[in-house]
């Protein structure tokens, strides 16, 4: 196990993120670096909806203090830097070497030791080791992921962990977890909200579940949770050789998803808006009660553009292109004008066995009408970036 400790202050973060030449493993584009260095975090700015939802959740858990150590009640941690070791993000959670979340197509690596955390679970063991037994931990997390209205490469999670007495059974812990989170859903959305449990798999919990809430015509996944694997709890509690199995539950929830449901925010990009038509709809008193419905101030027309290319094979006859390679380019060029990207066509040439894929990009601004010229320019830019940055992986 590595003993490296990640930097905690912003200057050290910046140095690591912008080191030149970048480590060969570094796959972090500039638009991600920029946001990783942003201070304060969105959930620290009143009355941003992420600030409001975080306060409401802390209210439900009757948080006794922030960034402190306490024997009683839940403590809320919200200023842990987003750079963590591979050990913290994966190994300490028993995530196997071949798990897809370790792949550079899914996770943003800085070098072979550090990455941008892909979940707040990266802090579970660390916080247990510091002596915390009931805590919430909020932070910005990073993933190479889909482009649509509920996915964004930087989003915010809140982790919750509760350790039980040695004599608690797995069933008691699971029942407590479900009751706690069902209570949270009611606290946030009222008794009428439609929720359902879905069985899941996480390497670090067993059993594992996800909670979905019905929103805007579809089931939206809001959190993952489960009974922590005893080996992980043992490691965190420092009880390496005791015979009894320590029990704890853990959950990781998506703050954007919960805020979208609570305030009826239709698109995840809105959280990054600096438009006053967005900001003026929220106020500090909404942290405590009343549910407000967000008034969409615009639904400007979308512009659709398709791009298609052949997937090249490397010397071992394997395709190296991953759709997330394209999505990073789209985000880098179009920023928040990119609303959705989906593959609309796929074709394999029987003679060459090469595959071609066609992607449809939906461009739309949340604040204004787009002109054809500006989108043509973005699309042209994208094509040329595909030709250069992905030259080894695809052919236009
Ligand atoms: C996890 O990240 C686990 N660490 C959660 C967990 C914690 C399980 C503790 C067990 C114990 P998952 O990948 O499903 O799980 O993400 C958790 C939540 O983050 C999702 O339910 C969703 O609400 C949110 N989320 C995931 N990806 C995105 C994204 N790209 N944009 C916005 N929100 C996202
Ligand atoms: Mg999930």
UniProtKB/TrEMBL annotation:
Occurrences of domain FDX-ACB (ranges): 298-396
Provide the GO biological process annotations: phenylalanyl-tRNA aminoacylation
Q: Which family does it belong to?
A: Belongs to the class-II aminoacyl-tRNA synthetase family.
Domain of life of the source: Eukaryota
Q: What is its EC number?
A: 6.1.1.20
| Alphabetical list of SMART domains matching this protein | FDX-ACB
Q: Which Pfam families match?
A: FDX-ACB, tRNA-synt_2d
Q: What is this protein called?
A: phenylalanine--tRNA ligase
State whether keyword rRNA processing applies.
no
């Amino acid at each position: 196990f590595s003993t490296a400790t990640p930097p905690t202050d912003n200057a050290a973060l910046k140095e690591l993120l912008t080191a030149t030449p970048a480590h060969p493993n570094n796959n972090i584009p500039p638009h991600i670096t920029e946001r990783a260095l942003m201070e304060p975090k969105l959930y620290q700015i009143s009355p941003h909806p992420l600030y409001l939802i975080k306060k409401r959740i802390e209210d439900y858990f009757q948080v006794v203090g922030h960034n402190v150590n306490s024997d009683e009640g839940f403590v809320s941690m919200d200023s842990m830097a987003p750079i963590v070791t591979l050990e913290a993000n994966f190994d300490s959670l028993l995530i196997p070497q071949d798990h897809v979340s370790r792949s550079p197509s899914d996770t943003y690596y800085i070098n072979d030791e550090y990455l941008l955390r892909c979940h707040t679970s990266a802090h579970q063991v660390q916080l247990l080791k510091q002596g915390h037994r009931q805590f919430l931990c909020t932070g910005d997390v990073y993933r190479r992921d889909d482009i649509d209205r509920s996915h964004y490469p930087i989003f915010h999670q809140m982790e919750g962990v509760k350790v039980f007495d040695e004599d608690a059974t797995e069933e008691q812990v699971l029942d407590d977890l479900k009751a706690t989170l069902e209570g949270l859903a009611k606290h946030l959305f009222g008794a009428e909200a439609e929720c359902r449990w879905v069985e899941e798999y996480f390497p670090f919990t067993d059993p594992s579940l996800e909670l979905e809430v019905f929103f805007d015509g579809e089931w939206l996944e809001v959190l993952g949770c489960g009974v922590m694997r005893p080996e992980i709890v043992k490691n965190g509690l420092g009880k390496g050789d005791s015979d009894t199995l320590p029990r704890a539950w853990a959950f990781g929830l998506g703050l954007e998803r919960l805020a979208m449901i609570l305030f009826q925010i239709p698109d995840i990009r809105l959280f990054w808006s600096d438009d006053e038509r967005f900001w003026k709809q929220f106020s500090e008193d909404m942290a405590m009660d009343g549910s407000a419905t967000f008034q969409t101030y615009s639904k400007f027309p979308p512009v659709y553009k398709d791009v298609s290319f052949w997937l090249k094979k490397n010397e071992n006859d394997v395709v190296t292109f991953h759709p997330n390679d394209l999505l990073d380019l789209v985000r880098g060029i179009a920023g928040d004008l990119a609303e959705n990207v989906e593959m609309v066509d796929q074709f394999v040439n029987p003679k060459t066995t090469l595959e071609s894929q066609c992607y449809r990009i939906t461009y739309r601004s949340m604040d204004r009408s787009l002109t054809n010229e500006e989108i043509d320019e973005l699309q042209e830019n994208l094509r040329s970036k595909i030709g250069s940055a992905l030259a080894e992986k695809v052919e236009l």
